[in-house]
Design goal:
By secondary structure, this protein is an alpha+beta fold. The chain is built from two helices and eight strands. It has an eight-stranded antiparallel β-sheet. Strand 2 (35-41) and strand 3 form a beta hairpin.
């Protein structure tokens, strides 16, 4: 009986550590002036982000919000009043962003641009700018 309790405690602690590791996304800016992603962890465990990409003819995709962490390590943003679902998650060497079902594109992009699925190098982080709290 004691061993079962001990084993359950160890597995719970290990699961919490794995979950925290999976959800670890460093603060900072990634990308270039025309295509960037800024991320900032909040004290409640949510991820504040701003995503901006410029496509053909200067058409822009932009999205900003708070993404909620899941047990699988994916941060999920659901835009209120829309079908937009946006995922952010860390891989071994990159941060990946994904427009689930391309619904964010429909509502937040110009006609010649997409969010799609993008990779942002984790080790090429720049300081945050005022874009993390946009006025748009």
């Amino acid at each position: 009986m004691r061993f079962s309790w001990f084993l359950a405690s160890v597995l719970t602690l290990a699961g919490d550590a794995v979950s925290q590791t999976l959800n670890a996304i460093p603060d900072g800016r990634r990308g270039s002036p025309g295509d960037f992603l800024e991320t900032q962890m909040q004290s409640d465990g949510k991820l504040l982000f701003t995503f901006w990409t410029t496509g053909g003819g200067g058409h822009v995709c932009r999205l900003h919000g708070l993404a909620v962490p899941t047990e699988s390590g994916v941060f999920v943003f659901r835009e209120a009043g829309s079908k937009c679902v946006f995922h952010l998650f860390a891989e071994s060497d990159a941060l990946r962003t994904e427009d689930v079902g391309e619904q964010c594109r429909e509502e937040n992009c110009g006609p010649r641009n997409v969010f799609g699925s993008m990779r942002w190098p984790l080790n090429q982080t720049l300081p945050l700018t005022d874009e993390i709290r946009p006025a748009w």
